[in-house]
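Table S2 (continued). Query chain:
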Amino acid sequence: MHDLIIIGGGPAGLTAGLYNARARLDVVLLEKLAPGGQVLTTDWVENYPGFPEGVSGVELVDRMKTQAENFGLKIESREVIGLELSEKKKKVITDSGEMEAKALILCCGATWKKLGIEGEERLMGKGISFCATCDGPFYRDEDVAVIGGGDTAVEEAVFLTRFVKKIFLIHRRDKLRATKLLQERAMAEKKIELVWDTVPVRILGEKDVEGIELKNVKTGDTHRQAVRGVFVFIGTIPNTELVKGQIKLDRNGFIVTDENMQTSIPGVFAAGDIRSKLFRQISTAVGEGAAASYAAEKYLESLH
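Corresponding output:
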């Protein structure tokens, strides 16, 4: 039995692993993909302290991973397919066997929310994307649509100007929610056309995206816009399927914790995008990972 298992290798999980490995706990981090989480799809990070010129998402995560491993963190490539959680036992069922731990930190993150409109499922991966960094180069000199008005949507729209001919930034309100600096960049970019008070109702095309049908929420008018790509950034859904019915969640499905990152089950902690909170950033994930690791350490001490 391990002292601690961390599920998820994003900034929260890697930070927790770093702290717990330094504390010389028997800790293992499980990640079904490459460590890094959504940061791996972020082209450039400008608001993480210590990098005044900015840093690529890939480099930032690689540094976190290397630092944690230098202190002895074991990272295993396993997919967690089930959890059995109680105050006395934490069983982790993976695609390659079962594991047990005295404590658990959930850093499973979140996934992009879909539009839920006609044509989306049919054209997923055929012109519809949730990652401008991954897929932007495929749309060189083409027109594309970006859906959303928050930081991610605006940041990714600005990034796409490196490749595409024109970007229609479609937002359901009459002003953006993104930070002022990002708004200023978008407004100053000639390739970006802001489409206010508008929502997508259908994605057009049979084998590839050929356009998007839009509706003005104030007038009810609809029109079709020819685009070759649609990038969707309308929020996230927590990866909490594994803990539904076992741990207290908020009305949006995120894990509820106390100020020490402990969930409704003693010895089970949560950090990062999976947690119910106001703000989801790399810096908050790192802070929560550190807090969860320390709380887990104190919990383990209490068992003795």
